[in-house]
């Protein structure tokens, strides 16, 4: 997963991305991020999302809410510190 997936969502942008492994662990495909797997699929999805601005807005808002609640630097630092505490306890 690239940083751009989080950056776009954090700024409230809609995103249509090629599929990358583990993306679904961070964002819900189809309701927070659009995904294509081939050039023809990409073209079809571009046409669909251009015709449905409300869908794009809902997906962008859903992704924004997820990123703001689960994927901030603060969240990552807490996870790293918790992991480090566990390692220290295990080593003692």
- Number of helices, counting only DSSP H or I runs of 4 residues or more: 4
Q: What percentage of amino acids are in beta strands? A: 5-15%
- Sheet with the most strands? 2 strands, parallel
| Radius of gyration from the alpha-carbon trace, in angstroms | 16 Å
What structural category characterises the helix and strand content? mainly alpha
SSE ordering:
HEEHHH
Strands of the widest sheet, in order across it, are: 1-2
- Helical percentage: 55-70%
According to DSSP, the number of beta strands is: 2
How confident overall, as mean pLDDT? Answer: 94
What low-confidence regions span 5 or more consecutive residues with pLDDT below 50? none
N- and C-termini, Cα separation: 34 Å
Task: Compile the SSE list and pairings.
Layout: H1 3-10, E1 16-18, E2 34-36, H2 39-51, H3 53-70, H4 73-91
Record keyword descriptors for this entry.
two-stranded parallel ribbon, mainly alpha
Briefly summarize what is shown:
It contains four helices and two strands, in the order αββααα. With 92 residues, the chain is mainly alpha-helical.
